[in-house]
Here is the input.
Amino acid sequence: MKLHWLLALVVLSLVVARADDTEPPTVFFAQIVKDHGTVSISDGASLFTFSKDGTFKQRPLGISGRTVEGRWVEADQSWGNASFIITGNWSWVNGISPPSDPRRMVMAIYPFGKFGTLEQFGKEIPVYKTYFVIEELVKTPAAPPTPQGP
Here is the structure.
């Protein structure tokens, strides 16, 4: 009888060990953007779009809301999340906003997500459904004016 229990324990150990080997690898959000070119995430009110070339855009899902045009860089990759620094000009759709409102935002985007869709004005938009946190949002000094041609 002891031999049966020992054999059952060995088989169970092998099954558990095999299950651990089949877990999908952790893929960080920056790699997903690199692989897909452009990836959007959402908090239900806004769409945050990251492009492989470093551009970042935020737009509202409704008829009014915050917009951001800027750039992103990956700041840190640690287990469970990756931090991204976004710098850009904040504005507003269908509302009053200053002509220049430069800010820096730090987002932590967790690597455990999946692709899905979100509806906006009757159209389905592809999004990467993941958990993220805005860790910091601060005003930054205005960028110097862009030089004009002759």
Summary: The two ends are 93 Å apart (CA to CA). Residues 24-139 form one domain. Residues 6-12, 14-23 have pLDDT under 50 and may be disordered. The first strand starts at residue 38 and ends at 42.
